[in-house]
Amino acid sequence: MKIAFIFPGQGSQYLGMAKEFAEIYPESKEVFDNASGVLGYDLLRLCLQGPVEKLNLTENTQPAILAASIAILRPLERRGLNATAAAGHSLGEYTAITAAGGFELNDAIALVQKRGRYMQEAVPEGSGLMAAILGMERTEVEKTCLEAAKNGIVGPANYNSPGQIVIAGEKKAVETAMEIARSSGAKKVIPLAVSVPSHCGMMQKAGERLAQELEKVKIHDLHIPIVNNADARFLQKAGDLKPSLIRQISSPLYWEDSIRNMTGEGYDTFIEIGPGKVLSGLVKRIAKDAKILNVEDEKTMKDVLNSIGIAP
Hints:
The chain is α/β, with parallel strands linked by helices. The protein has helices at residues 19-24, 26-39, 43-49, 52-55, 58-78, 91-99, 105-122, 138-148, 171-183, 204-215, 238-248, 255-264, 278-286, 298-308, and strands spanning 3-7, 85-88, 128-134, 154-161, 164-170, 188-191, 226-227, 234-235, 269-273, 291-295. Helix 2 (26-39) crosses helix 7 and helix 10 runs antiparallel to helix 11. The longest helix is centred in the N-terminal third of the chain and has 21 residues, at 58-78.
């Protein structure tokens, strides 16, 4: 059995995430306490009680999901559940790097709060759009975006799984791409309810601001490699992580390729750690023979430990 941890990104948040961990395990509560100290507000209270509108603000969502995921990870580590590689979806890549020892927790929390703020500030509200295109081949989606780019910035943002690609860019250009995709035989074209068109050229400014913040942060070599979003490559050296994270924010996210490259290296067990099961669903469509597990509460933790052969 070759285990990889995978960490969710924005959109997986919900009120009550990591609740049992914070209540039962001191090491999980400590994660939230430290994060609250960095942010200047009670992050655990926000995660448990909301209001949901505040939790869903990008600059709050990002530290909340990272803290919740690390809080869930800590008791697993204490019980001896370890992976030999990790990956995260967008924001989740910061969680993966933190889990692998690249960032100190406090630095990661401060970074992703700023990342969320810079992403929001990079684009005037209502000027960008993201849409999921289902049932179209990658080359067809790329061709569609090229055609629609006459109307502005648009391109593939997330190569999530076979037949599920998210596009992003300027509203008019994305809407044009959606129309072309529908008339070209896409099974479904769904506009996404997000306030920021991430992983496209509109995030260039946010990437430049993030680069300045990354310069101030100490990044360590990782004790296990992560597979990065921007290239789907295994990275472990600190010097490779910074440029990868800067590119990540304005480049397509190669999730399908990342999972394929991991299975190509013999990874057969993927454990999603954090709120929700979005990534588990994507991995099922990419690696049909893989064992896919998730931990988001006390029950799922016990199930996973039993499945791996560790006493809960």
